[in-house]
Amino acid sequence: MSEAPESQPGESPATSRRTLLCGAAAVLAAGGGALAVSGCSSSSSSTSSGAKTPVDVGPATAVPVGGGTVYRDQKIVVTQPTAGEYKAFSAKCTHAGCIVDQVKNQKIQCPCHGSMFAIGDGAVLDGPAPTPLPAYAVAVEGGNLKVTPS
Questions:
Q1: How far, CA to CA in Å, does 24 sit from each of 15, 19, 43, 44, 78?
Q2: Is 109:122 a contact under the CB 8 Å cutoff?
Q3: In this predicted structure, what is the pLDDT of residue 52?
Q4: Is residue 71 classed as helix, strand or coil in its secondary structure?
């Protein structure tokens, strides 16, 4: 395998593989191809403003007191530990990334490896999950639940 030529004084260093691949991906995307170009941005921000948009997951009445509802498409689980107190969490298990599938016996349950989380704070009740479910802000507006992922 040959080495890249060294740059001479006054010349810019050889193009990095990342720069080359990102440029190629941009050209393909501009040509109508659907290609993810994640990792190409030099910025660590995922949005230009950094603000998260609330997600309307549906009526608050869909979440039972002492239980919860999994919104699989949005990857959100909303619980109601006590009447009128709503909590929202990521539905992505912190062990292997599976989506939790139910809230039963006041526990958020993951079907993949048996992890269970508390409905009040997302804390791990039974592993192998290493950390709690990330909490999200939740509000009731016009009878619907609005969840703001963090």
A1: 12, 9, 19, 21, 41
A2: no
A3: 85
A4: strand
Q: What is the DSSP letter of 110?
A: -
Q: Helix or strand or coil: residue 4? A: coil
What are the start-end ranges of the H helices in the chain?
17-30
Q: Could you give the CA distance from residue 147 to residue 66 in angstroms, rounded to a whole number?
A: 19
CA distance 9 to 21: 26
Residue 68: Cβ-neighbour burial (10 angstroms; 0-12, 13-18, 19+): buried
Chain segment 81-139, per-residue pLDDT in tens = 999 999 999 999 999 989 999 999 999 999 999 899 999 999 999 989 999 999 999 99
Token pair for residue 74? 């949005």
In whole angstroms, how large is the CA radius of gyration of the chain?
Answer: 22
Residue 79 and residue 60: Cα distance in Å, rounded?
10
Answering whether pTM is above 0.70, one says no
